[in-house]
Amino acid sequence: MVLDAWTSGAAPFAYTAGTLQSIGKTLADAEAQIQSAETAEPAERAALAAAVKDLSVAVAHAEAGLQAGNRAGVQKAKQDLQLASRSLAAAYANYFAPKP
User: Fold this and answer.
1) What's the average model confidence in pLDDT over 28-34?
2) Contacts for 87 with CB less than 8 Å, ≥ 6 apart
3) Are 77 and 58 spatial neighbours (Cβ–Cβ below 8 Å)?
4) Is the distance from CB of 62 to CB of 3 less than 8 angstroms?
5) In the predicted model, is pLDDT for residue 38 greater than 90?
6) How many Å separate Cα 44 from the centre of its chain?
7) Contact, 95 vs 48, CB < 8 A?
8) What is the pLDDT of residue 40?
9) Using CA atoms, how far apart are residues 78 and 70, in angstroms rounded to an integer?
10) Model confidence, pTM
11) Are the C-beta atoms of 36 and 52 separated by less than 8 Å?
12) Taking a C-beta distance cutoff of 8 angstroms, is the pair 85, 62 a contact?
């Protein structure tokens, strides 16, 4: 949402940049926690970590586009974020699905 707001001129640069930095840190922390988790399903843990990593990469691309004032780059990163969010939702559901 913050990227939509920035692209439309409704959110200032500093707010958008700070939000992206905060999200990036949160995702890095989440990835570290997933990597260190002891689970019986390493493939599911790896899929979850990969989905979080994809989100992190998309956030980094959004930050780079923002810093460069590249609205097209920010839009592309926004699309990548949407795809990565779907992947994360699927990986999360699979990770926490009841096991037989």
Assistant:
1) 91
2) 50, 51, 54
3) yes
4) yes
5) no
6) 18
7) yes
8) 66
9) 12
10) 0.89
11) no
12) no
